[in-house]
Design goal:
Shape: elongated
Low-confidence stretches: none
Number of strands: 0
Strand content: under 5%
Number of domains: 2
CATH topology of the largest domain: Helicase, Ruva Protein, domain 3
Mean pLDDT: 83
């Protein structure tokens, strides 16, 4: 029973693709490297971070992150270096500045626009108080009587 619980616990634990030879000796630098790596997209696996991916490019990126940290770069400098090299697509969460603001605000903007159009449409369809519908013409009344008698 204890073995089963141990196996289930190991299966539930997150799997990291970081290999032992990649781990830095300094625990603080390794923690920073893991935080940075968790925000960078594997360009091969698409929706996995480089920390979770087993692809060789992800390994190269993990090593590059650690190399830049050992060289003394700040977290922001490391991310900027990788974005300059591979483009903004490498970020799992795109930045909220520049042209990306258009993308971030497009969804809420379209929702507001749709609500405004719907409100104007409903307002235009509402019958104005005091306006009576037009009476049927003699020809329309006769035709209605014919239709009602057929049933």
């Amino acid at each position: 029973m204890k073995r089963l619980v141990l196996i289930l616990m190991l299966m539930a634990a997150p799997l990291w693709a970081v290999e032992p030879d990649e781990v830095l000796d300094d625990p603080a630098l390794e923690t920073r490297a893991r935080e940075i790596s968790s925000g960078l997209r594997c360009l091969v696996c698409r929706n996995e971070s480089i920390d979770e991916s087993n692809a060789s490019l992800a390994r190269d990126l993990r090593l590059l992150v650690r190399e830049r940290l050992v060289a003394g770069d700040s977290d922001r400098e490391v991310v900027d270096f990788i974005v300059d090299r591979y483009g903004e697509y490498v970020l799992l969460e795109p930045r909220k500045d520049g042209a990306n603001l258009l993308l971030w605000w497009a969804g809420p903007g379209m929702l507001i626009l749709a609500a405004l159009v719907a409100a104007l449409y409903v307002r235009g369809q509402r019958v104005q108080p005091g306006s009576e519908p037009e009476a049927l013409s003699a020809d329309e009344a006769r035709r209605l009587d014919e239709v009602m008698k057929d049933e």
